[in-house]
Specification:
With 251 residues, this protein is α+β, with helices and mostly antiparallel strands. It has six helices and eight strands. The termini are far apart.
């Protein structure tokens, strides 16, 4: 019996080693996959419903779609919403366009979706695409805080500090805004850093919205809580204004 066991082991031990090594490799691969997933999602902010739309620049949304990595992300977000038929065609029936199952390019799908959807749906697609591509830094003006996510990690310097004026990613700025001025087809909103007793005191975030994309019927009087999605353009030291070019604004 001992001879048989020795003979069996002499024949099969290489395969036993292969099986053990394979099992270990699979365990390592699963561990790496879990670690990568957690690393990508550990700083992901919750995708809550933005709220009431105040402003939307549809041209900027389309421009963003055509820029680099965000195009694929936006196409995926739209397709996830409108669905795909069994034969791989894109179904747009829910938009009442009469083109269900029509084969079309990703650009056409996104363009059609933006033109025929409610602003709140478009903002949802935009935010989802930016978040999935780690392309937006979240700012809370009242708390003077930045949300720790992958996009912010890319801007942290050796000191661990970030100057908002130097952030070149898209920013989502939450604060208490108010109408500062109107004229020349533009409405200017301001929001203070921190929570001063006088909202006009100290440095301000300045957002200039084109009246063509502004929903006047929902802009409140006085100060109101809102979030602006856009890009930092400049810091005007003489006025103490951080200028943000808006893509969307909502409560």
């Amino acid at each position: 019996m001992a001879v048989d066991r020795a003979l069996w082991w002499s024949v099969w031990w290489p395969w036993a080693v292969v099986w053990v090594v394979t099992a270990l490799a699979l365990l390592v691969a699963v561990g790496v996959a879990v670690w990568a997933w957690r690393s990508r999602h550990r700083f992901a902010p919750p995708r809550d419903v933005p709220g009431l739309t105040i402003y939307l620049n549809e041209k900027s949304v389309m421009d963003l779609y055509q820029v680099g990595r965000y195009g694929d992300a936006m196409t995926k977000e739209v397709v996830d919403r409108v669905g795909v038929t069994k034969d791989g065609k894109i179904a747009l029936k829910g938009l009442d366009l009469g083109v269900e199952g029509a084969r079309t390019s990703g650009r056409e799908v996104v363009k059609t979706y933006i033109e025929n959807s409610e602003p709140i749906a478009v903002i949802g697609v935009l935010l989802g695409a930016l978040e999935s591509a780690s392309g937006v830094v979240h700012v809370d003006l009242r708390d003077r805080a930045l949300l720790r996510n992958t996009a912010l990690e890319q801007h942290l310097g050796a000191s661990g500090a970030v100057r908002l004026r130097r952030v070149d990613s898209y920013v989502s700025v939450k604060g208490v805004f108010r109408v500062h001025s109107r004229g020349d087809g533009t409405t200017v909103f301001l929001a203070p850093f921190g929570d001063p007793d006088d909202p006009e005191a100290g440095p301000q975030v300045r957002v200039e919205c084109l009246d063509s994309g502004l929903r006047d019927d929902v802009v409140p009087d006085g100060g109101f809580h809102a979030r602006c999605l856009g890009k930092v353009q400049a810091w005007k030291a003489e006025e103490g204004h951080l200028v943000v070019r808006p893509i969307a604004m909502f409560q």
